[in-house]
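Project standup — Tuesday

K.O.: blocked on the structure for the chain from last sprint. Re-posting the sequence here as requested.
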Amino acid sequence: MPQRPPPAPRPHPPALPAADAPLTPSKSQRKRDAHALQALGVQLVALSATQLARLELPEALHEAVLAAQRMRSHGARTRQIQYIGKLMRQLEPSALSHIRAALVPGRGRTPRPQP
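H.V.: unblocked you, prediction finished:
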């Protein structure tokens, strides 16, 4: 039986030049950002009701945080934290920076006027 010649190597598509590189973040970066927002959500869930009221969160996010605080089941609470992260990804960057600044210890509080 005659042997077939080996198949010709397939040409590789050319690599994208740096100028044509997409401007969107990589999948890994998007996942890191999502995990960071979930961690921020955990901090929000740990706050008291009065501290949450001071943050002036959007209504949907505020309701989701209150729902997470009422949950006792670990699995349900984990899903709710993921939902909070999803809601936070939809917020504007200025709103996120306001929330982050308010959660930093010693900041976000207005100093009392001295008599």
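K.O.: great, moving the ticket to review. The chain has a mean pLDDT of 84. The CA atoms of residues 68 and 80 lie 6 Å apart.
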